[in-house]
From TrEMBL, chain A:
GO terms for molecular function: 2 iron, 2 sulfur cluster binding; metal ion binding; oxidoreductase activity. It is an enzyme of class 1 (oxidoreductase). Keywords: 2Fe-2S, Iron, Iron-sulfur, Metal-binding, Oxidoreductase. InterPro entries: NADP_DH_HndA-like, NuoE-like, NuoE_dom, NuoE_N, Thioredoxin-like_sf. Its cofactor is [2Fe-2S] cluster. It holds the Pfam family 2Fe-2S_thioredx. Belongs to the complex I 24 kDa subunit family. Binds 1 [2Fe-2S] cluster. This is NADH-quinone oxidoreductase subunit NuoE. The gene is nuoE. Its EC number is 1.6.5.11.
Amino acid sequence: MARVKLSESKAKKIKEICAAYGNKAGEAINVLHQVQGEFGYLPAEVQELIALELNVPVATIYGIVTFYSFFTMIPKGEHPISICMGTACYVRGAEKVLDEFKRQLGIGIGETTADGKFSLNCLRCVGACGLAPVAMIGEKVYGRLTPDMVKDILNEYK
Amino acid sequence: MAKYKMHVLVCGGTGCTASHSHEITDNLKAVLRDKGLEEDIQVILTGCFGFCEKGPIVKIMPDNTFYTEVKPEDAKEIVEEHIIKGRKVTRLLYTDPEKKEHVSDSKHMGFYKKQLRIALRNCGFIDPENIEEYIANDGYAAVAKCLTEYTPAQVIDEIKLSGLRGRGGGGFPTGMKWEIASKNHADQKYVVCNADEGDPGAFMDRSILEGDPHSVIEAMTINGYAIGATKGLIYIRAEYPLAIHRLQIAIKQAREYGLLGKNIFGTDFDFDIELRYGAGAFVCGEETALIHSMEGKRGEPTFKPPFPAQSGYLQKPTNVNNVETYANVPIIILKGANWFNKIGTEKSKGTKVFALAGQINNVGLIEVPMGITLREIIYEIGGGIKNGRQFKAVQTGGPSGGCLTEKHLDTPIDYDNLIAAGSMMGSGGMVVMDETSCMVAIAKFYLEFTCEESCGKCSPCRIGNKRMLEILERITKGQGCMEDLENLKNLATVIKDTALCGLGQTSPNPVLSTMNNFWDEYVEHVKDKKCRAGACKSLMQYVIDPNLCVGCTSCARNCPVNAIQGEKKTPHVINAEICIKCGTCIEKCKFNAISIK
């Protein structure tokens, strides 16, 4: 299988981040946080390089990346959409809102649209239960959602 | 420091921020500047007031006026009318739903009347980004008292006497935990604050950290002194950027004031705090899993003993407490254990913060004395069920807890009573449900969560919960049989007995408690293929009553998948093959002609 090679500048940045944490295995989570913050996601070749720098097997890094829901191996869309599936939102109809987002975008949870514009995810509780059901697009919070509001909201970003 | 005549407090909690409270603050400041009042009136962005339902909240001190649902464009009127002319802006005041009268003072509002704010004492009152405001409200006086008047053993005795129990869910006596950690000797010990609030629908810890971060820092310092630790760590979710930001500011300020670092208050006690970030794993709320995560590993739990107090972070004695537990500590030291242990019930002292949510009129963050009844919380503080519907159940304890029903409404709430009723205190999520919530679907909802969050280390949790979920999926699709119910019960009992950690041991609770309280609903799903709440999609069909339909075409025009056909002014028909059961048509029909069968 053809492998994607990391650009030199990317590799340099990753090495810098690892070095800033003393290349210590115990700092793996902090390193991953920062690398994901820099590049948006953690593809296999990035994990391989981190493993090399921290002197641990790739499996260890892969194990951490897949364990925590905050880390992702798939690039997010330009406008990441997160639907709150906390209990408060769920009992106020978040599932119907999610279904409508799926239908409008033609993608499932954890997927990104073909044009790279939107990605869809669920999260557990934004802490804005007073506005339930809630969705976030980027940093913006949309509250008291109903399925018929979805189309207009998406149009704001088209 | 400048002296102000009036303070305008604007809620800067997550809910109100989402409804533009920053713009309100900016507008207020701009108007005050225009009027040349910025020296006299201070505008502060505070932590959460709790009354999220009516947010954004603006409170004016000293007259305690409580404005609700404020919009950025209301800033001018608030300044011109209230601040300059002294006339309250009545249209922004809270209206009592029963008496239909405006209530200006929050103390007289139903939502606040029965509350007792101890852990949340400073939330909504002080500027969380300014250490001087915390100090002005007796902040850091408790740690001063401990360091200069008490021995470590006396501090532990005081906490033990207070009866404080862990607020993260389990309810282990805090003083006893500290005592065990203090008795284990090592060259280095650690104090850890568990701020990995993962329970969906609970946001009390985040509100405390956002509204009063110094109280947690002070309490951790006291904890460090009591057990002989010089290092503190706060394990916080990366999903809480505002709380992280405020904690970073608070730690920096405390260091500048010499309240963290070497020789605190001129004594030989050193203490400092660092942040560690979680990455979204519910199981990390379990203390051994949390410790592994802080060490940079997968957050998998290990068998206890050894307890963290014996061998925790980096194999050193470690004391882990939750945010809300810590928020209680400084005030217990200041007011005394005998003040605290008079509040609450015999075995559960003090108060508990709950995130009240779901189908209830007043959604928000509340703090109530232990021993209050669910009825008081739901009907007096919560203002009853939304849209005048019927109360069905209230879920406490999140994915580890259970559903309580009508018959539990008058039970005094404390750790032991909730467990006896088949639920648990948990971290404090309280989700109210009405008759439109299907209890089988709710059990499935929580199990989906547990399956997703199970770390996979032990088989009862990894495999058992998955099998339970499959059974529930069958039942909600109308493919279940009576044997499934029997299997569900057996599996639940086995998982409860054999899982490794707290997550697995409590994961069957939502299933067991709904089966105990709503057995009929389970049977209905299996035998009659019916969901009385109308929540299980596979079991329902949308139909138009030809006698009521006038052919207005509203439903057909709004149907997102064009499943409704019919000529104008003649009854319409829904094509069940195409219908996605989204419910839009019911909402749009003005003639109540559409129903679920």
